[in-house]
Every structure is written in C-alpha cells, then in structure tokens.
Write a structure and sequence with these properties.
The structure is a single chain. The chain is built from no helices and 2 strands.
Length: 56
C-alpha cells in the first residue's frame, strides 16, 4: 500500500485501504451524507471491502 493520508485515522479493519496502524491508504477520501446533522449521519464513501472480508 502507498498513499497514506496523513492525519486520517481509520479503525475499519475490513476496508481494503486500512492498515494495521489504523492508517488510510486510499489516496483520497469522500465523506457523506451532504445533509448530515450529526456524527452518526456521516459515512466514508471511499470504503471498499478488503479481499479477505466477509461483507461481499
């Protein structure tokens, strides 16, 4: 993996961009929902299941 996004901490271990140090290697991220009014309304739209995860 390369393109670590400095300052972005990610604990989503089944994302293909996650590493063991909780860093994101997506190169860029997109966060939504545009109409969010609280933290629980936001999501990382860059998320993709890792090759070994069961979310497919």
């Amino acid at each position: 993996m390369d393109n670590e996004i400095k300052g972005i901490s990610c604990e989503v271990k089944n994302c293909k961009y996650h590493d063991e140090s909780n860093n994101c290697h997506a190169g860029h991220i997109r966060v939504g929902d545009r109409s969010a009014t609280s933290v629980s309304d936001t999501v990382c739209e860059t998320f993709e299941c890792c090759d070994s995860c069961q979310c497919r």
